Structure formats: C-alpha cells, structure tokens
C-alpha cells in the first residue's frame, strides 16, 4: 500500500487567525524557524496562509506601477489592481490583511506521497495544506517532511 500524506504530514500545525496581529505572526515564524503559517477561521476552516513572501512587502516598500500619459489620460503599463493589492499587504497590520487567500495548494490526507511531491514540484510550493472533506485544516506537509521520509526509507530501497 503506498504511503499517503497522512503518514508523513505534521499534525496539529501551528496556526494563526485573520484577526491576529502581524507582529505576533512574525514573532511565531521567527521563534519556530518556519517559513509560513496556515490561517484558519474560528471554526478551523482554512482561509489563507501567511508566509515569508507575504511579509517582504513590509520591509521592501512599494513602487507605483509604470504608466504613460496621452492627452490627459493615464495608461497603466501594469495592472493597477495588483499594485493596490500589494500596497494593502505593505500597509497591513493584521494577518488577514497580509495573508495569501488565493491559490492555496491543498491536498487530502489520503493523497499518495508521490503525488503530493509531484504537486509541490509542479506548483513550486514549499508546503501543502492538508484538509479534510469539510475544509478543516488537519496538517501540513513540507518539503522537509518528504526529505525526512525519503531518508528514513533509503535503506529499504537498497
């Protein structure tokens, strides 16, 4: 029987809530030496993730989108909505204002580990959020979890 995500994932992950302060989340990331935290609502449903990438806007600042003016009209060369979204992240004070809400990469606990590893590789993500059928977060699978699994089973392949 193939190994599943449930066999390898970290259970009971450290989570934050949208209303938590950003400074609290940053402190947790630094103290735990982790690169991201799942964000759940009060019912335990996954609503986002806050990662080191989301926090870079806080230090990096913002550059307005490039534009040209023609006959008193402004034509943006980049999507102004993206700038507005990034600006909101740069100025955010709570986890909910800064977290990534879209494009969360989730898997079910019964997903084969090989398929999960392929998904991580294809989507270029560092972690998969493991959710049950109701959308509740039940674990996190990181690249490190997969490497540790590979190391513990290396002698079996020889």
How does this model look, in words?
With 158 residues, the chain is an alpha+beta fold. 41% of the residues lie in helices and 22% in strands. It is built from 8 helices and 8 strands. The strands form 3 sheets. The chain has a 4-stranded mixed β-sheet with strand order 1-8-7-6. Strand 4 and strand 5 form a beta hairpin. The longest helix is centred in the middle third of the chain and has 12 residues, at 80-91. It is globular, with a radius of gyration of 19 Å.
Instruction: Assign the CATH class.
Output: Alpha Beta
Helical region count? 8
Uncertain segments are: none
Considering DSSP H and I runs of 4 or more, what fraction of the residues is helical? 40-55%
What is Rg?
19 Å
Taken as a percent bin, the fraction of beta residues is 15-25%
| Mean of residue pLDDT values | 84
Overall domain count: 1
CATH superfamily: CBS-domain
CATH architectural type:
Roll
Question: Keywords for this structure?
Answer:
158 residues, CBS-domain, globular, 4-stranded mixed sheet, CBS_dom_sf, alpha+beta
Record the SSE blueprint.
Layout: H1 5-8, E1 10-11, H2 22-32, E2 36-40, E3 46-51, H3 52-60, E4 67-70, E5 73-76, H4 80-91, H5 95-98, E6 106-107, H6 113-123, E7 127-131, E8 137-142, H7 143-152, H8 154-157
Parallel strand pairs: 6-7
Antiparallel strand pairs: 1-8, 2-3, 4-5, 7-8
Helix pairs in contact: 3-4
Protein name: CBS domain-containing protein
Organism: Leptolyngbya sp. NK1-12
Keywords: CBS domain
